[in-house]
Each structure stands twice: as structure tokens, then as C-alpha cells.
Amino acid sequence: MAALAVLRRSAPARLLSGTLCVHSRVLAPWRQYQSNRHFSNDKILVEMDESTGVAVMKMKNPPVNGLSLELLTEFSISLEKLEIDRGCRGLILTSASPKVFSAGLDITEMCGKSAEHYAAFWKAVQEMWLKLFGSNMVTIAAINGSSPAGGCLMAMCCDYRIMADSPKYAIGLNETQLGIVAPFWFKDTMTHTVGSRVTEQSLQLGQMYPAPAALKFGLVDQLVPEDKVQITAAAAMAQWLSVPDHARQITKPMIRKPIVDRLVKQREADIDNFVSFISKESIQKSLQAYMDRLKQKKQ
Ligand SMILES: CCCCC/C=C/C(=O)SCCNC(=O)CCNC(=O)[C@H](O)C(C)(C)COP(=O)(O)OP(=O)(O)OC[C@H]1O[C@@H](n2cnc3c(N)ncnc32)[C@H](O)[C@@H]1OP(=O)(O)O
Q1: Can you tell me the ipTM of this complex?
Q2: Cα 43 to ligand 1 centre (Å)
Q3: Is 206 among the residues known to form the active site?
Q4: How does pLDDT run across 230-259, given as a tens digit for each residue?
Q5: Is 145 part of the annotated catalytic residue set?
Q6: Which fold has domain 2-17+29-296?
Q7: Considering the entire predicted model, what is its pTM?
Q8: So where are the chain's domains?
């Protein structure tokens, strides 16, 4: 079954055998979507180039692309659509806002809300991670601005990261600076990207790295001038897509599946941990103080 799934993604419909072409008729509803070159909802815009099989997904939640429940939900639905679309082989993830890729989780979703809300929010964060980190497609992050915490997580989920070459833009998992703790799967994702030693230090210090520093230890793979980020991502994607899909798609989970499985096994416990941690009065105070500091910075 797994091999069939891989084959179904890797071969364009016209190259498939009779049996699989019958499947394409069964899947008529998404073929309707396939004919659209663009689809968008409030927070996510997708532009699909059917000639290359590459979708560009833009987060659009101004001013800073905070990962709200709404954005995360739309993100997962959009990614799911692309994942089952046999015409789509690659995803470029970027921001519709200049200067910020994503400010990470929307802190207002974690302040002064009910336990039910926190649980729903955290489930959506998990879902985003499971879908993006576990994607069968080639995923490239075109990081066109700052990318703290959850924004960095999203970028690290991708197969390749291209960032705007400016010391004004920083990336990293800064959770401890907010008085909160990145969960084990954020840590696993960073370890997967840059190794244990850098992760240990970065996570404890909640360190944000200007783009040039991030390149030095492999948190990002390539820096290019800000106005070249998208075109470079498209070129890198073409290179990744020159590898036969079936071989690449069997290789990727050899490394990622054990990491995905760790969260899958502990999803409910991880939600309970988050809800109990974030509901603590001391944590709420800490987040509120951080939000106040962000606002004061402007005055
Ligand atoms: C407990 C379990 C672990 C949970 C794991 C948590 C993961 C996370 O992702 S927590 C979020 C961490 N994110 C940050 O620390 C980013 C904070 N933001 C910034 O550093 C900056 O905003 C920036 C570099 C992303 C952009 O800077 P700039 O262009 O100068 O924009 P402003 O700082 O003026 O922000 C504009 C506006 O947006 C509000 N805001 C910024 N970040 C967030 C956020 N993450 N959530 C909610 N709101 C955010 C900021 O307060 C400003 O609001 P107004 O003053 O009302 O305009």
C-alpha cells in the first residue's frame, strides 16, 4: 500500500497504468480543485503551477503572521489538499508580509483563554507540525523575514531553507525568553536540523540568530538578497525535483518517521501537558509581561 501511495504521487496521471487511472476517476472531487491555479482562504494563499508541480503557499496574517488557531487550521487543510494532489510534487512555504516570515505562535491564543481553547489550539499546532514535517512533498522554506519560535519550527520542518540575507532578520527557538518551554518535538526538530550540541545551547538560551549566524551552523541552508528569495527557492525546488520522486519519498521517512511517531504516540499527553503548563498563573504573567514588552518596544 505504501509503495502504491508513493507511485501514485510520483507518476503523473497520464503515465499511470489503467488500474491507477480508474483511481483518478474515483478521486473526481479533488480534480475539480486541481484545475484551479490558485486557492485561498483568509490566512493562507496557495498558487499552484501545474506545469512544474510546485505550489507556493503564503501565510497572510498581518502584521506578523502570528500562528493563530485560524491560520494553523487553514494551513493544515491546504497542505492536506496538496498532499493528495498527484500533480503537486513540491511546496514552497513563505510569507505574504514583507519582513516577517512568521512571529511564531500567536501569543494571544495562549493568554487568558479556557482550557478547552488551549487544547484545541495545541492540537492545531501539533497537526501543522505532523503534516509539514511528515510531508511526502519536497518542502522548501523561503524565509523572507524574521522567524522566531513557531516560525522557526515551520522553517525547520522543511527539507531546505533559504533566508533573506540581512542581519535585521533573525531566526531561532526563543521560547525560554518568554518564560515558556519548547516541547520535546520542537527540540527533536531542531536536533534533526542542527544537532544536539547547538540545540542544547540554543534552546536553553532561547537564542535568536541573525541570518548570517544561522547559516554558519546550518539552521538555514542558503542566504540570498531579499528580492531573490523566491526565485532561488524555485531554482532549488527544480533541483530537488530532478530526483525521482519514489526514491526520495522512500528515503525521507527513514529519517523523519521515528521523530513523527514519537509525537503520534504521545499526542494526548502532550496536549494535557501544554494545557496544564500554559494555564499556570506564573506562566500567564510571564506571557503577559512579554506582550507588554513587545508593545513598549514601539513607543
Ligand atoms: C508552552 C509551550 C511552548 C509553546 C511554544 C511557543 C512557541 C511560540 O512560537 S511563542 C511566540 C514567540 N514569538 C516571539 O517571541 C516573537 C515576538 N515578536 C517579535 O519579535 C516581533 O514582533 C517580530 C520580530 C516578529 C516583528 O517585529 P516588528 O515588525 O517590529 O513588529 P512588532 O514587534 O511591532 O509587532 C507588531 C504587532 O504584532 C504583535 N506581535 C508580535 N509577535 C506576536 C506574537 N507571536 N503573537 C501575538 N502578537 C504578536 C506585537 O505585539 C504588535 O502588536 P501591536 O502593538 O498591537 O501592533
Answers
A1: 0.99
A2: 17
A3: no
A4: 999 999 999 999 999 999 999 999 999 999
A5: no
A6: 2-enoyl-CoA Hydratase; Chain A, domain 1 (3.90.226)
A7: 0.91
A8: 2-17+29-296
Catalytic residue among 74, 109, 127, 175: 175
Q: Which of 59, 61, 64, 297 to mutate to test the pocket of ligand 1 (most atoms within 8 A of CB)?
A: 64
Residue 81's φ and ψ, nearest 5 degrees, are -60, -45
Amino acid type, 182: A
Annotation says 150 is catalytic: yes
Question: In 3D, which of 41, 129, 110, 97 has the Cα closest to residue 69?
Answer: 110
Q: pLDDT tens for residues 64-116? A: 999 999 999 999 999 999 999 999 999 999 999 989 999 999 999 999 999 99
108 lines ligand 1 (CB under 6 A): yes
Letter string b/e over residues 113-142, b meaning 16 or more CB atoms within 10 A of that residue's CB: beeeebbebbbbbbbbbbbbbbbbbbbbbb
What are the percentages of helix, strand and coil residues in the chain, rounded to 5?
55, 15, 25
- Tell me, letter by letter, the H, E, C secondary structure of 4-26: HHHHHHHCCHHHCCHHHHHHHHH
